[in-house]
Structures are given as structure tokens and as C-alpha cells.
Amino acid sequence: MSGGFPEALQFSFAAWVNRLVDWLVLHYGDHLRSVSEQLLQLLVGLENLLRLLPWWLLLALVGLLAWHASRSLGRALLLPLLLALIGMLGLWDKLLQTLALVLVSTGLCVLIGVPLGILLATRPLARRLILPVLDVMQTLPAFVYLIPVLMLFGLGKVPAVFATLIYALPPLVRLTELGLAQIDPSLLQAAHGLGASRWQRLRRIALPLALPSIMAGLNQSVMMALSMVVVASMIGARGLGEDVLAGIQTLNVGQGVEAGLAIVALAMVIDRISQAYGRPGR
């Protein structure tokens, strides 16, 4: 007697998903191609802008940003030094490619995630409908995201941006909603009694009070975007992840370790600056 699961109870929805993707490509292929071209122009333009800056000027800007965020001279000197070490390893251009990818992905996360978090905090029905979707987005393996974006956008930087966006979006949405939900309702009621409109209450009271939580969500999104760098390199994103992937494929341990430590250094720089801006006392 076989111990396998009965075949009569088995089913597959893979064909449905394939038909959905085919339908999207057939009916919205031109729109997807247009979005892809515009996003690619943005990415390439940002990369070229970063390349136009002298390396010392970019390091100085990072140092000034670190000092403005933390008011710490030590941090303002240490963080640019970490980026300088990446340049000393001969990975400066790949660093700029990775930085452009992370900045664009994080920017899209902010444009989508913060309004979505506000919607979840103000609309209980939206919260009940969207939270399960966020759960799925957070628990699906990262490689699963590559399959649909490859079908819709092909190889290159654009599908890497969308895969990174899907992977890094949930923390920002959740923490934005959490920060707004923790605000004392009496503050908003008092503002309402003084004649403040809903938009004024949101912009002048709710968002400033929720800013530490929002910045924590942004920090988590950036870290998750950086964790996708190696995975995104598999579909043509290039950057530091490309060297890690090449080290794995050729068993070049040194090359993989150098690129991996460069990703860690970039993550530390972004993490320290975003954490400093998210401190409640600022």
C-alpha cells in the first residue's frame, strides 16, 4: 500500500499563473516596455551622475551627511573611510552601480510604502486586505520574485529593481502603519478641535511623530534591498553582487570575499546614517 498523497486530491495552479503572465505580456506589453525604458533611463542617469563626481567629492558628501545626521566627528570620518576602502579594492565603479540600484529601489519603496502605510493606519478594511499580501511578500523566497519580473521585463537592471522593491517594501509599510497607530488620539482630536484639516493633522502632527518609526522601516528596507544585490546580479543587475556571483561560479574565494565585504561596508554606511536620522530626539 502506497503512503503517497492521493492523486485524486492533487491539483496545480501553475497553468493559471502562466496564462495570467501571458495575458499581461500580450495586453500590456507596450506599457511595461515604456515603464522599463523610463526606469532604465533613471538608473543609468543616476549611475552616470555618480561617476561624474570625483571620488573625493563623493566621500566628502558622505562625510557631511554622516555629520549632519549624527553630529559625530568620528562617524563623519569613519563612514567615508569604509567607502574609500571599497575603492582601494578596485570596486569603485561596481559600488556606484550598486548604490544607484539601492537608491532607486529605496526611493520607489518610499513613494509606495509610506502612502500605503498611511492607508493601512486610517482604513481598517484596507489593513485587513493588504496585511496578508505583505505577509506573502515577506515570506516568499527571494528567487521566486525573479520569475515573474523576468517574464515581464526580461534581463537587466529594471527587473532587479522591481524584484528588490517587492522584497524590501513590506517593512516600510508595516512600520509606517505602526508609527501612526501609536500616536495619542487626543493630540489629533485637539488639532481637529482647533480647526486643522485632515491633511494638516497628517502633515504637521501624525507624520512628524511617526517619523522615528518610518525611518526604522526605511532602514530595514535599505538593508533588505542590499541583501538582494547578489540575487539581482543573476538577472543582469551587475554591481558588487556580480563579483560575489563570479566568485561562486569560479570558486574564487578571494574575489567573493572582497565583494561581500564591500557590500557589508556599504550597508554599514547607509545603516548608520539612516539610523541617526531616525533617532526620536532629532
List the helices and strands and how they pair.
Elements lengths: L13 H39 L2 H16 L2 H16 L3 H31 L1 H16 L2 H12 L3 H25 L3 H9 L4 H30 L1 H5 L6 H11 L2 H25 L5
Helix pairs in contact: 1-4, 1-6, 2-3, 2-12, 3-12, 4-5, 4-7, 4-9, 5-7, 6-7, 7-9, 8-9, 9-12, 11-12
SSE string: HHHHHHHHHHHH
Structural class: mainly alpha
Count of the separate structural domains: 1
CATH fold naming: MetI-like fold
**Name of the CATH superfamily:** MetI-like
What's the helix count?
A: 12
Percent of residues in helices comes to: over 70%
CATH architecture: Orthogonal Bundle
Number of strands: 0
- Strand content of the residues, in percent? under 5%
- Biggest β-sheet description: none
What's the mean pLDDT score?
86
Low-confidence parts, pLDDT < 50 over ≥5 residues? Answer: none
Estimate the global geometry from the Cα principal axes.
Answer: globular
Oligomer: single chain
Distance between the termini: 69 Å
Transmembrane segments: 52-69, 76-92, 98-121, 142-169
Membrane topology: Multi-pass membrane protein
Protein name: ABC transporter permease subunit
Main location: membrane
Give the key terms.
cell membrane; mainly alpha; MetI-like fold; transmembrane; transport; membrane; transmembrane helix; 12 helices; 282 residues; single chain
